[in-house]
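Incident log, support desk, overnight shift.

02:14 A customer reports that sequence design results differ from what the structure should imply. Their input is reproduced verbatim below. On-call engineer (initials T.W.) acknowledged and began investigating.
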């Protein structure tokens, strides 16, 4: 594929390969812009489930323009295979950072604030991500976090505008609905296949933050989690088993983390 043209996109190199397809670095010759071009695998082009997931990712993400969400420029089809033209990012997904050990308190707070801002924007237009996990969060080389992969997103309201993947769970569990997501990061209502709202994403982010801080998945039952910078009680509330005990909106969680960040900055100024 290297050097070939996919419509107006000149393929420069392969930068990722996952369960749904291949991601290439490409030049958009119409705009002279470098992009990430995600093309569904040829063998999946006739798989209705994968096609719906790919289309859902394009529909949800292209409706969003937010600094903490990877921008989708265009959705289309080439030789019967759907593709997405996306913002080309420099850096690594957070599962890559996990392998290097726990992240600093300052980085954790930046990630927490950035992702909660992104979730505020998605929930405001009726989109629930449903698959917040380290592999779907990207930390750029400039330190900005970006939410990736809306392939499992649930769209509750009509939209005005229409990384590497890791295996996810998609199976019928009860007559109430479909369980879909990645098990270690799923809330109890998501595991049960019950109707979801934004609190499911808040739960998933809490699990991710705990894992990034400690290198382990959380054990439930405690309110004093061993997290830095006063983040423990916030994350404990995010991962409460009952949705009614969590922050009810991403904005509430974001404001709590911003207070943490302000307190940490004030403490560091006093220490100088």
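02:41 Re-run completed on a clean worker. Output:
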């Amino acid at each position: 594929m290297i050097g070939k043209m996919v419509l107006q996109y000149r393929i420069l190199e392969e930068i990722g390969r996952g369960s749904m397809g291949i991601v290439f670095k490409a030049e958009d010759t119409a705009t002279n812009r470098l992009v990430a071009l995600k093309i569904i695998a040829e063998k999946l082009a006739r798989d209705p489930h994968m096609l719906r997931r790919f289309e859902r990712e394009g529909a949800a993400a292209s409706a969003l323009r937010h600094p903490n969400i990877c921008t989708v420029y265009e959705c289309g089809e080439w030789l019967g295979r759907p593709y997405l033209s996306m913002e080309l990012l420099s850096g690594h997904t957070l599962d890559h950072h996990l392998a290097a050990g726990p992240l600093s308190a300052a980085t954790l707070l930046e990630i927490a604030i950035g992702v909660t801002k992104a979730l505020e924007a998605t929930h405001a237009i009726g989109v629930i991500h449903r698959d917040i996990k380290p592999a779907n969060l990207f930390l750029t080389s400039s330190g900005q976090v970006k939410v990736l992969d809306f392939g499992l997103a649930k769209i509750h309201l009509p939209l005005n505008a229409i990384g590497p993947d890791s295996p996810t769970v998609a199976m019928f569990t009860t007559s109430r609905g479909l369980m879909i997501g990645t098990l270690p990061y799923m809330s109890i209502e998501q595991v049960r296949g019950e109707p979801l709202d934004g609190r499911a994403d808040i739960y998933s982010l809490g699990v991710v933050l705990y894992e990034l801080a400690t290198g382990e998945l959380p054990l439930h039952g405690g309110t004093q989690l061993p997290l830095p910078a006063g983040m423990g009680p916030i994350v404990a509330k995010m991962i409460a088993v009952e949705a009614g005990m969590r922050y009810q909106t991403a904005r509430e969680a974001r404001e709590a983390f911003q207070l943490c960040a302000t307190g940490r900055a004030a403490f560091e100024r006093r220490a100088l």
